[in-house]
UniProtKB/TrEMBL annotation:
Summary of the function given for this chain in its UniProt record: Allows the formation of correctly charged Gln-tRNA(Gln) through the transamidation of misacylated Glu-tRNA(Gln) in the mitochondria. The reaction takes place in the presence of glutamine and ATP through an activated gamma-phospho-Glu-tRNA(Gln).
Listed name of the protein: Glutamyl-tRNA(Gln) amidotransferase subunit A, mitochondrial
Subcellular location: Mitochondrion
Enzyme Commission number, as recorded: 6.3.5.7
Enzyme class, spelled out: ligase
Assigned GO CC terms: glutamyl-tRNA(Gln) amidotransferase complex; mitochondrion
Subunit structure comment from the entry: Subunit of the heterotrimeric GatCAB amidotransferase (AdT) complex, composed of A, B and C subunits.
One annotated GO biological process: mitochondrial translation
Lineage: superkingdom: Eukaryota
Family per similarity comment: Belongs to the amidase family. GatA subfamily.
Amino acid sequence: MRASLSRKSGPRAVICSKICSCSAVSLYSRPLLAQRRQASTLNHMVTTTESFSKPINNSFNYKLAVKDNVATEGLPTQCASKILDSHASPFEATIVTQLRANGAVVVGKTNMDEFGMGSHSVNSMHGAVVNPLSDKDAPLSAGGSSGGSAVAVKTGDAQIALGTDTGGSVRLPAAYTGVIGYKPSYGMLSRHGVVPYANSLDTVGVLANSIPSIEDAIFSSGIYMQHDPNDPTSLRTATRQRCSKACSSNLPAMEKLAIGIPIEYNIAELDPGVKAAWENVASQLEAQGARIVPVSLPATKEALCAYYVLAPAEASSNLAKYDGVRYGVRGKNGDSAGDTLYSEARGSGFGEEVKRRILLGTYSLSSEAIDNYFIQAQKVRRRVQQDFDRIFRLDNPLYEERQFDLADMEADMLLDNKRGPPQVDFLLCPTAPTFAPQLSDLQNQSSVDAYINDVFTVPASLAGLPAVSIPAWPKDGKFPVGMQLIGQFWDDLRMLRMAEKTMAILRAA
């Protein structure tokens, strides 16, 4: 990889254990399609090619794997769904074109949860993705929904992989497989050409084995400053410039950093091994001079519920187009008269989890439920964002600076002084509450049990904030723990550099 952006190196860093006290283009045609890998033991690639996608810039080349809900020239985009079997997009996703212009060579498409709906990459017409860290007789979850992309990076099939992150779908696979998963600020990377799940939450994410690789691909290349007029959620150039001016890229010395430990994230479901790793990372950072501060995010308790109202609601609208006429494979007995065609196409084309979320979303948008569910979830989302803005030292550059009103504060919120709660530079918390579960155990889980895996990743998604999962390897364990850093909006570069520094400290410990 190219040399990454120059950095100011402060003292090495890591934290302490106050956690215990914290409660294009060309259409797809079969003769051109590279054949699917046969009987892969990990099942992470659904289409592979060695030379199909040529880089535009030959001075710097790297292998890029692309999640199968991101349109790629010459390759099908199926979203791991039977309803899009052999579908080819007539154009390429902007982010793929941008990366190819900077030297990426697409090596294939990766397996995933159908339409991005899942936490373990098991809801796929191709079958489950297997974690490469698994024992021979006990296959583990690779996380989802971007599990195939995480495995492609872990196995060396790609140096960088694209995923999508709606509520944690890049960060969870990164945590389970021991790679780095980065979710950028909402609106930074173009979603044009990405099959939507929930428009107000979807982001394109990046998985890699090193932070400099991510910096090179997204920041050194200048992609993070490029507005895409084809994507209505892409921030305009003037807004990007204003945000960049408000957010410095230089990470200060550790002695000047405050790291927040959210007390609401210390939940009963937190695995003791994950909690111990969290405490260890915190203590390592504190030993290097960082100040560890317990902070309160009261709306976190309702964040997961709000997400599973909002995301299915948007999904039910987005997936309405798959009707067997405009999109979707027609049923064998369907006709063009109406109900039979529609019901057969959707009934046979969608998997069980997708059907479940469509029904949930349709109900929450119904006239009798919208006020009690969808509207209330939107209010929770706003409170989640306000909680983050309240505890970050850096102001949110999207909004005018406003005075913090103590009357708006929860009665049990911790105060730093009489002016309000403590303010921090970054938040540190686990990415997932448990280690990677065995695939066999998932068969006995209810859908609600699977949703709990998103409890630590959903809040940042609701607020549109950048977050990155980095691996922390316990000395007495063979499986990694994902540690998540969350930053203020558009503070992506400083957050990534903090992540790199944290990883260096953990390696040296």
